[in-house]
User: Which sequence fits this backbone?
């Protein structure tokens, strides 16, 4: 099942994955093989079959509307690759 | 060629829960950056969402109040995209199976009722805030504050039934009032707890197919929504009349310039890759729960306005003003009952003192007593204003203040006649001039009596007594 | 027991010895830390080792005992966790460069339960990156190696945990299983691994790969050991909405149950021609063991088995592509240097931070969910999943447990399949259907290949019937005793 290089680059952009030219080529080949294998599912007649969208379907678990502050802001920020005071800092989006 | 506009409005209402929709952080406003956060709402590796029951209740009540059908099974879905204010890189929302569908809101315009359909209502989580900052390490930067992440939102989508900007404004205002009545949202557009995006297209009158629509964003007040719609409709008509075609795009309202401008950098439509969120079970809502919540729905704005107008014989416009808040409407009814006289007078009084009433600084009895005293002539109109202000300031019963300040008018005919006689007797020259034709001197006599009574005489009665005596 | 070296003791024996003050937690912990020191350079089972902290914990456990208290069934026993469970204050990497220095702000529920039971944490164990793999070759920290033959894979993705247990460097570990990642490495390393029913063990703090398939479970040297650990980590958790509120039975007691009269299903699709001869022989021996104890073998069919791999390789990557999107360099983990704009920063961070297999699966998953493809791939896979679940439901109407091989072959050589994804994926054909159906599964050693490599048999059970598969596995274990610690020269 052929997947084009354009499709590979499009999917990579959707997934925010920078791929080198070699990686993109290899990806195209490997994905092509995998997707071809997966198309075997087309052979199955699934008309009328209800999809399993959830592994468990029993009742809806809830929590009460009460506040329990986590209370450790520094724990939330401690892994930040870049921060300014208590903000996470990132490069701005460049309009292209 | 005549055109008609086709407008659909999409509202995001922030739900007035104490805690967030999927974690126990506070939804409180104005906290320092990243204060109201936890591993769950900041998307740490390994965390999982747990649904806030109150958010579901609020959505069910909203659905009932807008005649929607609550779905017995609805599903949370992930809306996937990358942005620094979206910690999981997906927003938990609802897609194919929303909580409620197929409702409507009726709006009354110029004596006619227009029904605006509601396509769907669903629950989702809010994103954080990204502010632009200065340069660092060779790049312009932005700063992410995740406090608002996971605050519960209810999305309400209207059918494209709206035809004019005014209808759009009326729909929004009515929807907001309903949400405030239900106490599910504080309905504040300027603060962002009630947000509106619009889909606008035009088509030649009589055509059934829709024209190409543009999405409008960044309108932060009802008035701005109406202005933006007005402008956009005109713009699209001009484009078409100039031989062009309307482009399907997202446009931002620029309130200062009074125009809509295309949003930059959005050429590729987002592919959100929605799929059911495997971390949350399907939402099952049974009839019994819906019925239980139906009982908690108060009289809604539309019904209240109609009822107040008909029951109290007040103009519809006044009924609308009184119904702008449940508290005000309830206050009016309590006050009218306590007074027992002409409700129109009570209505005017309540409208005049709206702010203080809504702020909880007056009691229905206060207004009832003031209105009664004024109607019986016990106090003057001026005194009534003074008394209400004093009641606001001191919280004392208004008749007590009236007596303390000695604001009771002298309305006793006998007493006034005696004083009038005195004044007439003491000013023979003026009496002669008056009887000779200088009727303007009446105010002189009124003034004298007022002086004698230190302003306490009922001016209307004084005039009557004087006229009778002077001839 | 004095004749058996400490590192070869079972977990239950160690727990009893500590409880009865025959040995201190410090002694046990020190012994295992020394063994880790000796073995880890060869097998690379651990990403993080915690010598000081472990000794401190052991000392504290000893003091508590002296004062007359014991926290729980694992009091003072040194164990370890796959590096996928968040441990506050202790680096948790998921075997990935993108989390190579991540310090979680909280503990996973499983971490908490292990601690509440009184265990001592020796360290965090190696794994395929983000649990995506069947050989532990995709770890950014280097491959783990099978202690039975260090040129061979230990299996994956919980290869580090299985290798660590088989090398006698911990009394048990907790791994995770999404398509076989506990059972397959257990089989390849000659130890016991349990994937519980979906919803049995809390996923809170267990870094997600495929949310509807992931489950945490024990890897230990004996079935009773595994049962004891399962009893500790199982249970409802309000922080995990997919966690099921079902009482936790006495799993340890279940291991002593008789299998007389148990109907053992043998799915013909799992024993087709082409199955490795030594695997077939070993699994037949396991069946023989059960039958000799009064169980009955019943041939059954799971007709949609051949579609399980494809179904898994759509659903798993689809969910993973979404679960791994949060690794964008904004709040934690690796961030690329020198990016000029946001999109470049995110794309290069993820391009550099993720390995090839993870990127491959993110691509497959993104593609399967993308506009125009959803129904053909993800939608279709969800329907086939229903058919696979039905296969098991229908089968369990006539049998109590199902017996199959765990892995198609014994351990293959490191490097043999890592560049051929499809071939690698085929390692999981026997284990994957169980995750799709959400039913519990266990692998128990039942033989050795002519090369001296371990072979395991898999038992599958009904939802929340871990007791039946534990009973059957324990019976096999008693009838077919096999060495559970690899010889050091391996």
Assistant:
């Amino acid at each position: 099942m052929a997947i084009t290089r354009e499709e590979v680059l499009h999917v990579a952009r959707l997934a925010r994955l920078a791929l080198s030219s070699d990686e993109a080529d290899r990806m195209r080949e490997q994905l092509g093989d995998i997707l071809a294998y997966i198309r075997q599912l087309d052979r199955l007649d699934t008309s009328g079959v209800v999809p399993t969208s959830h592994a468990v379907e029993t009742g809806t678990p809830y929590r009460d509307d009460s506040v329990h502050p986590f209370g450790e802001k520094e724990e939330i920020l401690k892994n930040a690759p870049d921060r300014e005071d208590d903000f996470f800092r990132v490069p701005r989006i460049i309009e292209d | 060629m005549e055109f008609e506009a086709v407008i659909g409005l999409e509202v995001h209402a922030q739900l007035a829960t104490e805690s967030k929709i999927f974690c126990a952080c506070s939804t409180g406003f104005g906290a320092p950056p990243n204060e109201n956060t936890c591993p769950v709402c900041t998307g740490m590796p390994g965390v999982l969402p747990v649904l806030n029951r109150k958010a579901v209740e609020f959505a069910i009540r909203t659905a009932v109040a807008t005649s929607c059908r609550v779905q017995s099974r609805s599903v949370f879905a992930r809306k996937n995209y990358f942005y620094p204010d979206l910690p999981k890189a997906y927003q938990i929302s609802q897609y194919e199976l929303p909580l409620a569908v197929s409702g409507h809101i009726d709006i009354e315009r110029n004596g006619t009722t227009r029904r605006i359909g509601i396509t769907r209502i669903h629950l989702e989580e809010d994103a954080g805030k990204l502010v632009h900052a200065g340069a660092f390490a060779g790049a312009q930067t932005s700063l992410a504050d995740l406090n608002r992440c996971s605050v519960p939102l209810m999305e309400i989508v209207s059918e494209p039934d709206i035809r004019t900007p005014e209808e759009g404004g009326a729909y929004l205002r009515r929807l907001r009032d309903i949400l405030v009545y239900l106490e599910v949202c504080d309905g504040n557009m300027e603060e962002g707890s009630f947000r509106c995006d619009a889909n606008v297209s035009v088509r030649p009158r009589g055509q059934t197919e829709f024209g190409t629509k543009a999405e409008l964003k960044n309108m932060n007040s009802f008035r701005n929504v109406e202005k933006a719609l007005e402008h956009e409709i005109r713009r699209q008509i001009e484009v078409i009349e100039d031989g062009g075609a309307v482009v399907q795009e997202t446009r931002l309202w620029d309130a200062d310039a009074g125009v809509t401008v295309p949003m930059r950098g959005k050429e590729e439509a987002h592919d959100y890759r929605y799929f059911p969120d495997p971390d949350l079970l399907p939402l099952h809502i049974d009839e019994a729960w819906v019925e239980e919540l139906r009982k908690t729905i108060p009289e809604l704005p539309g019904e209240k306005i109609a009822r107040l107008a008909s029951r109290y014989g007040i103009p519809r416009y006044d009924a609308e003003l009184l119904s702008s808040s449940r508290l005000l409407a309830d206050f009016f009814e309590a006050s009218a009952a306590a007074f027992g006289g002409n409700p129109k007078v009570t209505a005017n009084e309540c409208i005049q003192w709206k702010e203080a009433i809504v702020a909880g600084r007056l009691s229905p009895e206060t207004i009832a007593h003031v209105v009664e005293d004024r109607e019986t002539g016990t106090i003057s109109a001026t005194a009534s204003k003074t008394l209400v202000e004093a009641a606001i300031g001191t919280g004392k019963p208004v008749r007590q203040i009236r007596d303390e300040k000695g604001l009771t008018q002298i309305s006793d005919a006998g007493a006034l006649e005696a004083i009038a006689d005195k004044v007439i007797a003491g000013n023979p020259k003026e009496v002669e001039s008056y009887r000779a034709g200088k009727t303007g001197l009446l105010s002189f006599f009124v003034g004298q009596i007022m002086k004698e009574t230190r302003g306490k005489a009922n001016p209307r009665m004084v005039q009557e007594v004087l006229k009778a005596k002077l001839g | 027991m004095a004749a058996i070296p400490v590192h070869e003791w079972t977990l239950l024996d160690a727990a009893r010895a500590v409880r009865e003050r025959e040995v201190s937690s410090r002694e046990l912990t020190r012994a295992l830390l020394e063994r880790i020191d000796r073995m880890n350079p060869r097998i690379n089972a651990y990403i993080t080792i915690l010598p000081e902290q472990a000794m401190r914990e052991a000392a504290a456990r000893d003091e508590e005992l002296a004062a007359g208290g014991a926290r729980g069934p694992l009091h003072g026993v040194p164990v370890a966790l796959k590096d996928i469970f968040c441990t506050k204050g202790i680096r948790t990497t998921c075997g990935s460069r993108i989390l190579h220095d991540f310090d979680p702000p909280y503990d996973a529920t499983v971490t908490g339960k292990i601690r509440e039971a009184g265990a001592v944490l020796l360290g965090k164990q190696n794994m395929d990156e983000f649990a995506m793999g069947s050989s532990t070759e995709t770890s950014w920290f280097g491959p783990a190696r099978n202690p039975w033959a260090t040129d061979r894979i230990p299996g994956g993705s919980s290869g580090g945990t299985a290798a660590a247990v088989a090398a006698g460097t911990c009394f048990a570990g907790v791994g995770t299983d999404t398509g076989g990642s506990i059972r397959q490495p257990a089989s390849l390393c000659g130890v016991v691994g349990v994937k519980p029913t979906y919803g049995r063990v809390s996923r809170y703090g267990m870094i997600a790969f495929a949310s509807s398939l992931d489950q945490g479970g024990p890897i230990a040297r004996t079935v009773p050991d595994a049962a004891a650990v399962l009893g500790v980590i199982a249970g409802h958790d309000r922080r995990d909405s997919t966690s099921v509120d079902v009482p936790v039975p006495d799993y340890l007691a279940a291991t002593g149950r008789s299998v007389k009269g148990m109907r053992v299903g043998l799915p013909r699709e799992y024993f087709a021609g082409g199955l490795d001869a030594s695997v077939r022989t070993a699994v037949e021996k396991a069946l023989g063991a059960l039958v000799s104890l009064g169980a009955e073998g019943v041939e059954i069919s799971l007709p949609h088995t051949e579609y399980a791999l494809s179904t898994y390789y759509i659903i798993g990557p689809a969910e993973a592509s979404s679960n791994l999107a949060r690794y964008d360099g904004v709040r934690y983990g690796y961030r690329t240097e020198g990016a000029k704009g946001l999109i470049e920063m995110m794309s290069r961070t993820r391009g550099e931070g993720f390995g090839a297999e993870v990127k491959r699966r993110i691509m497959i998953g993104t593609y399967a969910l993308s506009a125009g493809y959803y129904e053909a791939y993800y939608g279709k896979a969800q329907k086939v999943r229903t058919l696979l679940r039905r296969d098991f439901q229908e089968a369990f109407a006539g049998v109590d447990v199902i017996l199959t091989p765990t892995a198609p072959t014994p351990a293959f050589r490191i490097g043999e399949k890592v560049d051929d994804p499809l071939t690698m994926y085929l390692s999981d054909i026997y284990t994957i259907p169980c995750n799709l159906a959400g039913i519990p599964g266990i692998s128990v050693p039942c033989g050795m290949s002519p090369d001296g490599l371990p072979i395991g048999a898999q038992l599958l059970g009904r939802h929340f019937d871990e007791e039946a598969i534990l009973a059957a596995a324990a019976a096999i274990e008693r009838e077919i005793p096999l060495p559970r610690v690899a010889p050091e020269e391996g």
In short: The first helix of chain C runs from residue 11 to 19. Chain C has a mean pLDDT of 96.
